[in-house]
Design goal:
It is built from eight helices and ten strands. Strand 1 and strand 2 form a beta hairpin. Bound molecules: adenosine-5'-diphosphate and magnesium ion (MG). Its EC number is 7.6.2.11.
Length: 240
């Protein structure tokens, strides 16, 4: 699969009179694992939803692979998003949850079978295909949400605080799983988190967002060693 870049150029978004994203400029390189770090309310989810096509920006350009996709509707963007809440279908089995997007796209059933089986194997859930979400642990539900998204073979993977519902130990384990899966697939990934340590230990590069403004972009070590302002210094420096 082709690795693509994602670029935000002078992006602005308001809810009513409140500007939530203020002149966002970011370039995520093809195949990169990019973390978007910021406190609650800083605009992280709004920016992800905008890239996915669920929010429209008021100004600026959104480029994927160099092409402006601002006018392309969400379902045609080839971008996968994992929500913080997972949003699994409670009445469907793991298998049906993962197959859903492929059925919707009317793929041949043999191909659906093959792709679902291979993705379930990839996330280590082959033995859980017949379970329903409420019969799974939090970590397993998280893997289903991930499987359901990557089975579509998106060019870009957006993860909105995918580990925040898990307890600390599992979070650390899943963080590594997520990263190694991303490395194997090579999908350009934007990982949203409010957890400094999570961003610092996983990201190729990261951006710190505060009040809708990108404060700094760089490798985790650059932000740690050379924070550009007091906010970044305090926020990145506070390991929890
Ligand atoms: P984060 O994900 O970083 O916690 P959000 O992107 O969810 O932040 O929210 C950024 C700001 O936009 C917050 O002040 C939030 O209250 C506001 N906001 C988010 N969604 C909406 C909405 N649908 N309508 C109005 N305001 C919103
Ligand atoms: Mg959020």
């Amino acid at each position: 699969m082709k690795k693509v870049s994602v670029e935000c150029q002078n992006i602005r978004l308001s809810y009513g009179a409140t500007e939530v994203l203020k002149d966002i400029n970011l370039r995520i390189e093809p195949g990169e694992f990019f973390a978007l770090l910021g406190p609650s309310g800083s605009g992280k989810s709004t920016l992800l939803r905008l890239i996915a096509g669920f929010n429209r920006h008021n100004a600026g350009r959104l480029l994927v692979d160099g092409r402006d996709i601002s006018a392309v509707p969400a379902h045609k963007r080839n971008i996968g998003m994992v929500f913080q809440s997972y949003a699994l279908w409670p009445h469907m089995t793991v298998w049906d949850n993962v197959a859903f997007g492929l059925v919707e796209r009317r793929l041949p059933s043999a191909e659906i079978k093959e792709r679902v089986a291979s993705v379930l194997a990839l996330v280590g859930l082959s033995d859980y295909a017949k379970r329903r979400p409420n019969e799974l642990s939090g970590g397993q539900q998280q893997r289903v949400a991930l499987a359901r998204t990557i089975v579509i073979e998106p060019q870009v993977l957006l993860l909105d605080e995918p580990l925040s519902n898990l307890d600390k130990n599992l979070r650390v384990q899943m963080r590594q799983e997520l990263l190694s899966l991303q490395r194997r697939l090579g999908i350009t990934t934007i990982f949203v988190t409010h957890d400094q340590e999570e961003a610092m230990t996983t990201a190729d590069r990261m951006a710190v967002l505060d009040q809708g403004v990108v404060q700094q972009v760089g490798r985790p070590s650059e932000l740690y060693d050379f924070p550009c302002n007091r906010f970044v210094a305090n926020f990145v420096g506070t390991m929890n």
